[in-house]
């Protein structure tokens, strides 16, 4: 504010001298809630001048400094003397408003959250009356309570103090004041304060809660007696999770939700399967007894299993899906998000209304595993938003054997990570199931209204060890002495209902007997279970096929030309960057038949044919719009206004949808998301592209535990395509190898495809094959870098239109096969190095054969291509990667299978190395020349 304006304003205001501290406090209250101060003060603050069009209350620290500066400079500025200091009653009014705010901010720190009463809560002086210059002598004084949503404008301090403690320091600890959006904070305050965090609930609801607790407790005791010592990762201590989930699904269905997708780790999973999703208990008991279906492949342990069913709610049946989950606990979260995104798009419900994601975490895992942060970071982005997720922490206060907070995390709560996306956090004592039900309903309402994540911290305990074979007293003696004496949640709540006259003791006992009888009978124990009718995707067209299943692969050349012209038809008002413009001018020449097609044009043409046929495409990656190596340019950026234009979205009316997103800087979470998406939407060509193939090792857990083995373990089909730029260009250890060997080592049971296309026609037909062929297997592609613009790596439209992806490509030069003395087998970019050197050498006695698909190994095709060389005894496998990497060790047995009997097979390539590549270009060039010469030189 300009000094002259400030002086004039000061001269006529109350903001002076001895009033400064008081005014600051009043202004703090006004900023938090304009209605909390008296009208005359509100008018003063409302009327503050603006500086450059910005209201003063947008930055309180600057205002406060100006107050203090003016107070100090008052005499020098020749302003009028300050009025008398504010009265004591006015000052206490401000103190009362500060007390309310203190409870909103920090009441959770004094809440009764731990069922075992082991938490040592630090003293919070902000919650003490004396900190605000108040005392019990003020209890009978009536104060205005501002925005405190109790339904009264004023209360005695005594009433207010009790109310604040009931609301914020009972069984619920609410954290929401970190949220910057005022509307969200006001909404939460209204919801929490209006009922003092304890709404009235009906007898029917109470009985339903007790039934849930009976089921949770009954299942665990039954399994413990029937299968003593067997691992089950018991829910005991966190029993409230069962009525919580059933209440959440019921409320979601009533609000219009059609599907709920749940991701959770081990703890309580078997209980959820039986008591929420309705898995037949007899099937679970058979699994404990070691019985299994031989047709299910390798299988998995029972506490990783997924399940699907329908659940009856007042709003109609809701389809439930519990995602399969490996022991890498939190990795299931982005998988669930991807599955939900696919379902939302299928239902045309991008606001999240139709499908609800629910993730259930462990307290140590959510704070300790980085994929949680990655998933939070994705939650509001364009390509990955799902309308908010309800996140539940089963907080049993022990991470395996670690219970000391200073060893498990560096924050007060395990849920503090949720603050990075300003999610409200509701801590709740699991021994108070009515409070649990309240925060569950509140969390769902918040998610549905604001389309954002919300966290519930279900503070409980673990009655047994990490698994039932552990001895927890060895590492947590005091905790388990307490647990041993602590009654189970069912008993606590049954006693409460009996004491209040809601349910008699014998009625509670009858519920226990009925549940035990249902388990003995072995049938479904969930009243709301219904046969599945609500899921909306049909996998039947993709079942029962092998690699040779026929499909319509050819495409007319005229059609390709037509689509090529549509790809290069850019509106006049879209101004392209100069290099991009040159690229599109070249593509026009390709469309006109004046130039051979390069990689980027062929790839875009593949997508054009797919969307033209009505099939959807989804591509994500850190540079997927333009391509890391500046080759794709499927998303064009207008240099005039930074708007974007996608030719692939403008192929024809009614075409398939295509979405291309430059993703957040994550491999693990983004790829897991795309895996989840692909498992829920088989009709879409789903592609994840690594920025460099080397970076995919950040997502190794997804490759290992989902993509390579999901079908064998769980019967989960997935058609995800993974593009991994790979090739030795002298760019060092982290920009050369996509670690081909790791993918080949995981090849078995026809679990996926590993391809290394070397021409534009090959990538065109490979992508089309992946989309059109009626089977769904993951496709791992070692995609190129330098080949994107290599003068020899070009194709004609005729090569594209024949529609065939060649798993093996034989010798392309006009060599006399009878004069060939050596055959070099290779894959990828090294072929062009070999070809150019052979031509330079004018050699005619060495044939080059490319393996474009390494798995499933195309033995029959190889034998046909290699038939002219049956006389050759000298065979070489040539690769760029070090000897202990690449395809040599993993695929050597396949090479031996197809070469002539009695022939010798030799390796030509880099020596074994701990590093994927050297860092010095000069050394790289020496190595590359040596391996090429070694492969071509016949001694």
Question: What keywords describe this structure?
Answer:
elongated, Helix Hairpins, seven-stranded mixed β-sheet, 939 residues, alpha/beta, disordered N terminus
Describe the SSE topology.
Layout: H1 3-11, H2 20-32, H3 39-46, E1 50-51, E2 54-55, H4 60-73, H5 88-106, E3 142-144, E4 154-156, H6 157-168, E5 172-175, H7 182-193, H8 203-226, H9 241-254, E6 259-264, H10 269-275, H11 281-288, E7 307-313, E8 316-322, H12 332-346, E9 355-362, H13 363-368, H14 371-378, E10 390-395, H15 405-408, E11 425-429, H16 433-450, E12 454-459, H17 477-485, H18 489-499, H19 505-521, E13 529-530, H20 557-567, H21 578-591, H22 599-612, E14 617-621, E15 636-637, E16 644-645, E17 658-662, H23 668-680, E18 685-689, H24 700-707, H25 710-714, E19 721-725, H26 740-745, E20 753-755, H27 760-772, E21 779-783, H28 797-801, E22 808-809, E23 822-826, H29 830-841, E24 846-851, E25 853-855, H30 859-866, E26 874-882, H31 888-898, E27 904-910, H32 921-936
Parallel strand pairs: 6-8, 6-9, 9-10, 10-12, 11-12, 14-17, 14-18, 18-19, 19-21, 20-21, 23-24, 23-26, 26-27
Antiparallel strand pairs: 1-2, 3-4, 5-11, 7-8, 7-13, 15-16, 20-25, 22-24
């Amino acid at each position: 504010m300009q000094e002259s304006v400030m002086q004039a304003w000061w001269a006529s205001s109350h903001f002076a001298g001895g009033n400064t501290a008081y005014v600051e406090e009043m202004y703090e209250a006004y900023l938090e809630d304009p209605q909390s101060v008296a009208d005359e003060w509100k008018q003063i603050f409302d009327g503050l001048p603006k500086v450059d069009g910005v209201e003063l209350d947008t930055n309180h620290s600057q205002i406060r400094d100006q107050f203090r500066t003016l107070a100090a400079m008052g005499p020098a500025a020749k302003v009028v003397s300050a009025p008398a200091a504010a009265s004591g009653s006015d000052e206490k009014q401000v103190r009362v408003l500060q007390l309310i705010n203190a409870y909103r901010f920090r009441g959770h720190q004094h809440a009764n959250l731990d069922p075992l009463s082991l938490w040592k809560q630090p003293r919070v002086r902000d919650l003490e009356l004396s900190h605000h210059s108040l005392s019990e002598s003020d209890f009978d004084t009536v104060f205005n309570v501002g925005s405190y949503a109790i339904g009264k404008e004023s209360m005695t301090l005594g009433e207010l103090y009790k109310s604040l403690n009931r609301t914020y320091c009972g069984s619920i600890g609410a954290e929401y004041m970190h949220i910057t959006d005022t509307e969200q904070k006001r909404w939460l305050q209204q919801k929490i304060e209006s009922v003092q965090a304890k709404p009235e609930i009906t007898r029917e609801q109470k009985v339903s809660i007790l039934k849930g607790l009976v089921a949770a407790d009954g299942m665990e005791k039954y399994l413990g007696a029937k299968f003593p010592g067997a691992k089950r990762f018991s829910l005991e201590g966190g029993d409230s999770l069962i009525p919580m989930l059933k209440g959440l699904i019921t409320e979601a269905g009533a609000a219009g939700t059609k599907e709920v997708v749940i991701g959770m780790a081990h703890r309580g999973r078997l209980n959820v399967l039986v008591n929420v999703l309705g898995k037949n208990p007899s099937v679970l008991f058979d699994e404990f007894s070691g019985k299994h279906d031989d047709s299910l492949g390798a299988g998995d342990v029972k506490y990783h299993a997924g399940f699907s069913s329908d659940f009856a709610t007042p709003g109609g049946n809701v389809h439930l899906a519990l995602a399969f989950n490996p022991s890498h606990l939190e990795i299931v979260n982005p998988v669930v998000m991807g599955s939900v995104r696919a379902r939302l798009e299928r239902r045309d419900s991008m606001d999240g209304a139709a499908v609800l994601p629910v993730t259930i975490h462990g307290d140590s895992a959510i704070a300790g595993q980085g994929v949680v942060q990655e998933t939070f970071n994705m939650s509001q982005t364009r390509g990955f938003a799902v309308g908010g997720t309800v996140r539940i922490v089963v907080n049993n206060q022990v991470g395996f054997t670690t219970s000391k907070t200073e060893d498990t995390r560096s924050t007060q709560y395990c849920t503090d990570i949720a603050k990075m996306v300003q999610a409200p956090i509701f801590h709740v004592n699991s021994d108070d199931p009515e409070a649990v039900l309240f925060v569950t309903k509140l969390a769902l309402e918040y998610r549905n209204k604001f389309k954002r994540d919300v966290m519930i911290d279900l503070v409980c305990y673990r009655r047994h060890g990490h698994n039932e074979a552990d001895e927890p007293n060895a590492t947590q003696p005091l905790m388990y002495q307490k647990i041993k004496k602590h009654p189970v949640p069912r008993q606590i709540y049954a006693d409460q209902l009996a004491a209040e006259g809601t349910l008699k003791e014998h009625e509670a006992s009858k519920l226990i007997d009925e549940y035990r009888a249902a388990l003995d009978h072995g049938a479904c124990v969930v009243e709301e279970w219904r046969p599945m009718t609500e899921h909306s995707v049909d996998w039947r067209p993709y079942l029962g096929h092998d690699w040779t299943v026929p499909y319509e692969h050819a495409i007319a050349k005229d059609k390709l030309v037509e689509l090529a012209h549509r790809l290069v038809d850019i509106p006049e008002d879209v101004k392209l960057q100069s290099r991009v413009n040159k690229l599109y001018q070249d593509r026009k020449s390709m469309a006109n038949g004046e130039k051979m097609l390069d990689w980027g044009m062929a790839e875009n043409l593949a997508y054009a044919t797919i969307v033209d046929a009505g099939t959807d495409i989804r591509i994500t990656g850190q540079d997927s719009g333009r391509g890391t190596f500046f080759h794709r340019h499927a998303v064009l950026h207008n240099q005039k206004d930074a708007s974007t234009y996608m030719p692939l979205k403008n192929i024809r009316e009614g075409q398939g949808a295509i979405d291309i997103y430059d993703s957040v800087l994550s491999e693990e979470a983004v790829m897991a998301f795309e895996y989840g998406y692909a498992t829920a939407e088989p009709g879409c060509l789903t592609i994840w592209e690594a920025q460099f193939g080397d970076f995919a090792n950040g997502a190794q857990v997804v490759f290992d535990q989902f993509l390579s083995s999901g079908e064998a373990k769980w019967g989960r089909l997935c058609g995800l395509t993974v593009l991994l730029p790979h090739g030795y260009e002298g760019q060092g250890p982290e920009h050369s190898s996509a670690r081909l060997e790791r993918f080949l080592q995981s090849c078995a049971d026809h679990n996926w495809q590993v391809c290394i296309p070397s021409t534009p026609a090959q990538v065109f037909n490979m992508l089309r094959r992946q989309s059109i062929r009626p089977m769904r297997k993951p496709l791992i592609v070692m995609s190129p870098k330098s080949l994107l613009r290599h003068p020899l790596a070009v194709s004609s439209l005729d090569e594209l239109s024949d529609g065939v992806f060649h798993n093996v490509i034989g010798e392309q030069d006009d060599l006399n096969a009878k004069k060939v003395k050596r055959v070099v087998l290779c894959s990828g970019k090294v072929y062009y190095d070999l070809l150019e050197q052979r031509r330079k050498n004018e050699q005619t006695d060495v044939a080059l054969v490319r393996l474009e698909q390494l798995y499933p190994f195309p033995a029959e095709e190889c034998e046909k291509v290699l038939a002219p060389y049956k006389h050759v005894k000298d065979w070489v496998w040539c690769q760029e990667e070090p000897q202990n990497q690449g395809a040599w060790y993993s695929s050597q047995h396949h090479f031996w299978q197809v070469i002539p009997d009695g022939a010798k097979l030799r390796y030509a390539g880099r020596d074994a190395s701990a590093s994927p590549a050297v860092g010095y270009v000069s050394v790289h060039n020496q190595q590359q020349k040596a391996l090429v010469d070694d492969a071509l030189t016949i001694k």
